[in-house]
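Quick one - first record:
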Amino acid sequence: MSRKFEVPTQRIIGTTAALLIGVIGCSQTPRLTPEEAKAKGDALLRTMSANMAAVQTFAFTADERRERTANGKTGATSTTRRVVVRRPDRLAFIGKGEAGEIAGWYDGAHVTLVSHGHKVWARGPMPPTLDESLDFLANEYRVQMPTADLLYSSPYDALMTKDTTGGWVDTQAVGDRTCDHLAYQQAIVDWEIWLDSNGQLPCQLKITYKNEPGRPSTTVTYHGLDSSQVSNDTFTAKIPDGYQRIRIMRHASVEAPPEPETPGAAATSGSAKNPPR
């Protein structure tokens, strides 16, 4: 045998051991078939949805990062929101980002939005429940909320549609949490969700608007989920003195009901435009 074809015995043993370890490792974490991945993802989503639905009052912090690619360059904006929910008919939030500080309140009858950077506020009528109001915000006021699907009384039904395909992908780290990573495809968007503790709660949600120019995406990371009780005052709109009222733009023919004056605020009609977000 020519020496150029000889391989040291030690190297053979080491290579064989490495191959065996790889085979054993693969056997311990087998790849799922598409049907198994779909079933596992569905089970995790249903568990998360049931857990979220069981909590009537909760709060969380959401870090939102929006990205869009144009001319080969990707631009990003970031916003942090603290959201408080009390089902079936209360929501409050305050957000800080490039657009300044924005606050909002839903009280079962109206939504009130305040832009502290512009010193303006707006108010519009809303349906009597949070589930209806989330749809109303999107359809009537054209307000898109990436966190909205997780605020419905059944997040599973809000997320999943008849054309949804996908399932469990793998486990990944989100900050210091180990999360199940699920990925789904729909006609208009692709979305991914990361769930901690075997689907108990959401860690992160990413939505990609694949039919829009630049394929913009929004990634929302959730922190500090808290189910403590809150007072009614949490959902009462707080408008500082001197802020100007502007008209909220609606996209239907129904006239908004007359609004009472708010003490300490100039309730002028302003120009017809969307409230700053």
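second record:
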Amino acid sequence: MNGVLIIDKPSGWTSHDVVSRVRRILDERSVGHLGTLDPLATGLLPLVIGNMTRLAQFYTSSEKTYEGVIRFGFATDTYDAEGQATTPACAVTLSLASLRELARRFYGIIEQVPPPFSAKKVNGVPAYKLARRHQDVPLKPVRVEIKEFEILSAENDRARFRARVASGTYMRTVAHDIGRHLGCGAHLEALRRTTLAEFAISDAQLLESLEAAASAGGIEDLFIHPRKLLPQFPCVTASESAAAFIRHGRAVNLPELSQARQVKVFQGQKDLIAIASRVAGTLFQPRIVLAVEPPLVAKPAARRTQSPQAPFSKKLLNHS
């Protein structure tokens, strides 16, 4: 089973929990995800299944969009609602105009210190393991990019936002830093991912829907159409002979795509068989082969026909 499936992750589940559940539902061991979501977060979690796991390398720097809620009045050790308070609670009065003005400081390329409860490594050890043991977590600032950050509303001690960010950006840290700027403390109360690369939350399936589809034998109807994947690469449909070469990892000529650097190669409408890179001119070399040609079955050796004289000649030799 090969395909890309979008799951609407429920709160309280780790990304690995979802992968494990889908492995059981599909009875397929080869399942991976294209971007971790914290247990608190909900929303879009793309899964790659079977040979499609080879596409994961193209999504390591994918842009993401989030919607969420920041709660003001105290900070937490995890920078979200699952942590313990690290500052005394205080009453706050939020001004939408002031919050929007403050949000502008976070636009563009900024330096951000990852949360202590994160997968970032300190001398080879994940930061969250040190934080759980109440040890110092000396994480260094990293450069991230926030392409959009809009405060949608502010009421009582909570503010709703929408953000579009580059890979590696922690919205938990953004919430924490805003609270620090205001002097009242803050943390991320809720987060929902709505896009990742070309995928949107409208493509997502609940785990319960996936389970029902599996029971009805309609799983493949939930997969993202392969021609919608990696839209930055043009599509080309290979002839039967060219597809046979590609499936064996051999270079082929694709004249109609002579200007493209990388292409998605299909056999038919839905069978994505490779991602190929241009070598020179119209010659393309498969970079990733997604559909391997079945091994050739050796033909039985032809029985050698002997001439009628052969046995007689051998007999004569044996008696010479």
